[in-house]
What we know:
This protein is of the alpha/beta class. The protein contains seven helices and 16 strands.
Amino acid sequence: IARAPDPWHELEEHIRKAAALAESPQGFARSLEDILAHHKGKGLRIVQDSEPAYYAYESSVGNFLDAGLLFAQRGARWYVKQMSHPAQPQIHRGDAVMLDSFHPQRSLTGSSVSLRLQSQAMSPAKDLRVPLQKTSLAAAALLHTQKESQLLPLGGKKICREKLWLWLSPEVDAALRSKLAFAADHCDALLLDVRDAGGPGAASLSEFKTKRSFPIAVLINRETREGAVSLALQLKQSAQAQIFGEPSASRQLPEEHVRLKQLPWLLVFYPEQGGSLIPDQMVDDSWMYAEGFDGVQEKALKYLQDSLSH
C-alpha cells in the first residue's frame, strides 16, 4: 500500500515548482503566499526588504533609509506610493521612477538620493534630489506622522486631517492619541488616513465616548493592517466614524516571523486568517499616475462637507 506523502515534503515540492516557474521575485512571493496561506491554519505574509515594514519586524537588519517616500513596484517599474507632507510638494503619489536599477533601500546611499520621476505615461521626466537620512523606522514613523497634521478649511469649517505614517509604534500611538483628542476639542470634523499602515499599537479611544459628537472619516486600503485596522474599528464603534476605501488586511497581530537565508524576505505568521474591516463606502485606492488626485480622500471630504452642512 502506497503511503501518503509527508505534508511538509508535499508543501516543499509546491514551493520548488513555484520558484522554478516564477518570472520575478514578486511573482514568486505571490505564489508563496498562495501556497502557504492556510498552512497549519496560520495566516502568512511575505515582507521583502523593499518594504519599510521589513525594518520594523526585523530591527537587527540595521537602520531604515528614510527619504520621506514610500515606493511600490508594479511589473518592472517602481512608483511613489506615499510621501510625507509638505516635504516633497513636487512629488506626486503615483509618479513612476524612471531608473532601471532603483530599489527603495539598496539604491539609497549618501545624504540624498537622485530620482527621475514621470507623472504621466507620455510626459517628460523630472530630475530631483531628495534628502536622505538613516534612522530607525519607528523614529521615521513618528516624525512623519507629526508632520502630516493639517488644518483643512472646508466651507468655513475646520477639518483636522491626521495621517498614520506607516507604523503604529507605542510612541506613534501616544502622539496620535493626543492629536485625536485635540481634534475632538477644537475641530468641526476629523479626517484620519491609515492607508498603508500597520504595527502593534492601537490607540485607546474611550475619551470619544464622552466628548461631543462630530463627523469623522477614516481612510483605509488593502495594506491597512494590524493595529491600524483596530484603530479604525475603534473609531467606527465608539464615535460612529465612516470608513472609506478598500477592505483592509487582517487586524491580527503577528505570532512570529522568520528571516529567509536565500532571499531578503521575512515570512510573517499570524495566528489565523480573517479580521478584515469592510469600509462603509467602497472607493478604489488607485495611486497610479494620480498626479496628486486622491479619490478616497475626496470622497471622504465630500461626506464631511455634507455632514457639516446639515
